[in-house]
Task: structure prediction
Amino acid sequence: MKPKIIVARPIFDDVLARLREHFDVTDNQADTPWTKASWTKALSQHVGALTTGSDPVDADVLQACTHLKAVANMAVGYNNFDVPAMTAQGVQASNTPDVLTETTADFGFALLMATARRITESEHYLRRGEWTQWRYDMFAGAEVHGSTIGILGMGRIGQGIARRAAHGFGMKVIYHNRSRLSAEAEAECKASYVSKETLLQTADHVMLVVPYSPASHHTIGAAELAQMKPTATLINIARGGIVDDAALAVALREKRIAAAGLDVFEGEPQVHPDLLTVPNVVLTPHIASASIPTRRAMANLAADNLISYFTQGKSLTPLNSVSA
Ligand code: DGY
Result:
């Protein structure tokens, strides 16, 4: 009898086929949306699951899932998991670190460029047929090369962005993080550690890469936006809830900061309606890790985490320690 697992959302066919060699798999290739109740009921009938960052495995869900043994998140972020509750129930939690670092850093930089140089705003103008002649100030934006980037959260992705900024664009890199990097890592990223206040007050471009937790909720709200330069841009590739989206919409509308680029939103896939009506914001639907090779690597690592747990007793990239 193969262990019964559920794959919560559509996934590459070949990854699914590989999982079927080891497991009795319930798939959702039709992408039928879950309610919390339908997801909980489905999960409770399986011992393993491959989830995305949108599928909750919290204390309420776990209460109903007494047979559950392992959940592999196809994401590096895991704020959809209650890891202490999973550990208490003996459920192995895993995520997909490393495989998406460089792709996500690429995207952070792409969003910064699009935001500072007003790429989507100007494309919409062109598509509307409003472009009649060249003007000296038409969609003139902020400088990227040679400017100062402030990176809030200096984990693997933050360091990837810092390397691109320092070595590719000659930017001055300042960062703030819970813990300071080693001197060697700072030298490699050409990055200087500063307080959060200095970062907000000094950076031309503020890049958010902090993980979400109750402690990082609204890391950027009205007070922090007020500290930023009026010419600054804010980029969020971290998680919805790190920024107070309502306060950001006000700051953008009142030009208290120049522009923002957002890949993640509070309550996504809903987007705060005011963000949809301000022109100086670039909005993307949580796609920072979405290159095909990287999404394949994430899916394969999540699958390997389940296979490894059920064959070896431990996932390859576990978030907790449990006895099988
Ligand atoms: C991640 O890996 O955390 C990305 O945000 C995709 O969910």
Summary: The longest strand covers residues 148-152. The domain at 101-283 is CATH 3.40.50.720 (Rossmann fold). The CA atoms of residues 214 and 241 lie 9 Å apart.
